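step 4 of 6: structure.
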Amino acid sequence: MTTKDRDIETRRTGANRRQMLLGLGAAAGGAMALGARPSAAAERQVADAPTEAETVRRQPFYGEHQAGIVTPRPAHGMVAAFDVVVTSPRELEQLLRGLTERILFLTQGGTPPELDPKYPPADSGILGPVVQPNDLTITVALGASLFDNRPWLAHLKPNTLQRMVEFPNDALDPELCHGDLSLQFSAHDSDTNIHALRDILKTLSQFLVIRWKQEGSVPVIAPKPDGTSESARNFLGFRDGSANPNSNDAGLMDRIVWVGAEDGEPAWAAGGSYQAVRIIRNFVERWDRTPLREQEHIIGRRKMSGAPLDGGNSEHDVPDYAADPEGAKTPLDAHIRLANRRTPSSQRNLILRRPFNYSNGVTKNGQLDQGLLFIAYQADLQKGFIAVQSRLNGEPLEEYIKPVGGGFFFALPGVVSPGGYLGQSLVEAAGKIPNEQS
Amino acid sequence: MLKHLMAASALTLVLAGPALAAKEVTLDLVEPIADYKIFVAEKTGELVADTQAFVDAIKSGDLDKAKTLYAPTRMHYEAIEPIAELFSDLDASMDARADDYEKREADPDFTGFHRIEYGLWDKGSTEGLEPFADKLLADVTELNKRITDLVFPPDTVVGGAAALMEEVAATKISGEEDRYSHTDLWDFKANSDGSQKIFELVRPLIAETDPAFVEKVESNFNDVDVTLAKYESGDGYELYDKLTDQDRTLLAARVNTLAEDLSTLPGKLGLD
Ligand code: HEM
């Protein structure tokens, strides 16, 4: 297929696109465009750059799945991990009901009660007298240790949930790793995330002790005149998210991201998703001293346009590895080629990435402490993140990156309607205790 | 409080806080404050006596004895910290930590308990500690005198319950307070007992109006006591390193919640 053909192909309609993504379309044959996301789309993609429009947007809370997973990324993200102090299903229920209550308030907005000034105020006041939603989502996920350390919960652990593995290039800082529970906050501004975190710490201190947190952001980019949006850049200067699977394609998300009822997982887990979080430091000084051509070969894409190395001029163009078996154009060990070989069999390893860039300060050596708060969702942790990272082991990019923290978690299914709470199916499976709701 | 939170329907967008239960009440704090003053006087009396023995051990070069006396002596101070801290000059010279100074341990202004602790454990000797020991004894004596003359401010006393747990949350959970001797659990216990003492004294004033609050606070204090009791050893406590991750997490959760809940105590008692 020529570059021009691919240009045309990427302008196809959603229906054709979906067929193509599923490998059903005639055009899919040589291109191995499986799972690639479309370009021209009024519907925004999970990793498209945030646009100004979302200042006062409210993300719905109720649904089969939690918000914050296929929700397009706003400008600011944060992951916080906690140790959980619960010793019975009833206490777990109290924690999860409490979280649901706070998340509803914080993401939908409202006015905190005004207390007698003799008391500490009910709210930190960071967002003023009225808490605006500011596009906030809070996604709750559970770590393996929550299950492993509790006999009444252990048998309900999702099949591939495990303590984060240490990969060969990792230099994990124990103070930045693991946790019984993670909260992913994403919002229009960082103050909204911080406000939400402080609210939850204040109201749920009985059950939650914070272990670590990492904040990040992605630049806001106004949509182009033709309505298309683009992927934000990471701190290596490359567009990040270009080849993400189409997050607006519900069927595709069912296959790649969401645990289904037929997946052989514990029944309570249907509608949830595995969350892999990695705090990956970038050696930016060294990267900036690396020739452009080498940078592009390491990633496998053009730096400015994001186009693949074998042609095209847009980040949404798709590389054709079948036509480049020796890696003459896209090196065989380029990041994107290792991460996704684009063969029918690599289809099962697709993941949905939703990362943020972080900038923390300065290291003892006087280098910038910056990197990627990598967050990925998948229906199977083993076939998803772990398989992809295992293929990336030893990649040339490793010279410029160092994973130092993170954890593996399982994002709970959503709350379908008012009255329910996050994790209800899990608590009920753990042995429904007469609750003290009334 | 959590019960209230849970009782609110999922759609309720307000935080069910302590204010909902609070009423304007005028309460007689005279007796609890008088009792507290007696408690503090006892502690400062013991502090002076024990510091004298501690200082004697240092000056006679008895390293082992000095090390043994360090943690129990400090406990008297830690238990009454909300009052002792009213005298910020003495607090700085008696209880500052090396990180309060830019030059850390080398700073000439770094004196008091932790300077002596640094000498005894890190340097492993009583040598050169005499001036610090003399200064500590003088400070302790002065503190005792000032406290005797002090009219106890009710808001400081009542607010002290939360302040002590705040102190634990900020410095004792991490083991950074007694970083050379690792005797943090002694301080932990002293702070917590000091807080509990204040709570017990005012408890009768809220027991009837706010039983759920009283029950929750007592249960959290109990969790702290039971957990710390696991680390009792001889007349005191095991070293901080012995604390398991699980117990540290439990203690952190209880301490944070106590600090949170007790921060409403002055309001509940109508103090402004
Ligand atoms: C700091 C570390 C990383 C950097 C700087 C980075 C950078 C990039 C860039 C620039 C792209 C191309 C644009 C795009 O499709 O998004 C890309 C693609 C990709 N990356 Fe990474 N990445 C990092 C870590 C990871 C990790 C840890 C994984 C998973 C284990 C991963 C998986 C992928 C995948 C699956 C693709 C898409 C490949 C395709 O389908 O063509 N990346 N990455």
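step 5 of 6: annotate
 - Residues A 234, 236, 238-243, 278, 280, 282, 299, 301, 335-336, 339-340, 351, 371-372, 374, 385, 388-389, 392, 401 surround protoporphyrin IX containing FE (CB under 6 Å).
 - Residues 94 and 224 of chain B are 27 Å apart (CA to CA).
step 6 of 6: archive
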